[in-house]
Sequence to fold (221 residues):
Amino acid sequence: MDSLHVVLGATGGAGSAVVRELVARGLPTRALGRKAVPFPEGVDYVRGDATDPATLRRVCKGATVVYHCINVPYAHWERTLPQLAQRVLEACADEGARLVVMDNLYMYGPVEGPITEEAPRRAAGPKGRLRAQLEETFLNAHRERKVDVCIARARRWMVALAGLFSPDLRQVGEVLYQFERPFIVDASKFQRAFGGRVTPHEQAIRETLAAWNGGRSPGTG
Fold:
């Protein structure tokens, strides 16, 4: 199979969006997730746990590009994510696959002015410091030419809003500074390279509430 794209964490928000985009582009796609959910025709969906080394190696077999979109509950980050990062890198190195990592902005901490990828890492708490540690793990593999790595970042600014509905998300007080001062991500470099547009906040809020409301628009049902 030519140019096989493998999406880890394919049933989550980021992973499912990556799968849809790959399918829309007509690219051969394999997806790994833990839930029994339907995928577009042609997707090779494997239901399994990415933290199982044998499953991870099997799913990444023959991959050209691997998309690491896996996340775990906040309480499990420290125990799960560092080891998972190493295993994903090993699987990519074995296959000679490129790795695209979906990440957030916790490692930057409180900032003044728009955030760019060159901004200093000044994490405000343990979860931010862990994200900075994971970033170094991936970038070290890239610098040492073990795996070709690209890190994609998105602001998880809906977390506190989602915390109204999910007790697991209420523990992330260390990033509430994002709501206490301007917290702006400079997307100009990305847009110059790839085009596209930034989703307006009003649209993002509306669609997030609809998703948490079971697909219904806020205030209905």
Q: What stands out?
A: The beta strands are 4-8, 29-33, 44-47, 63-68, 98-103, 149-153. The radius of gyration is 18 Å. The chain is about 35% helix and 15% strand.
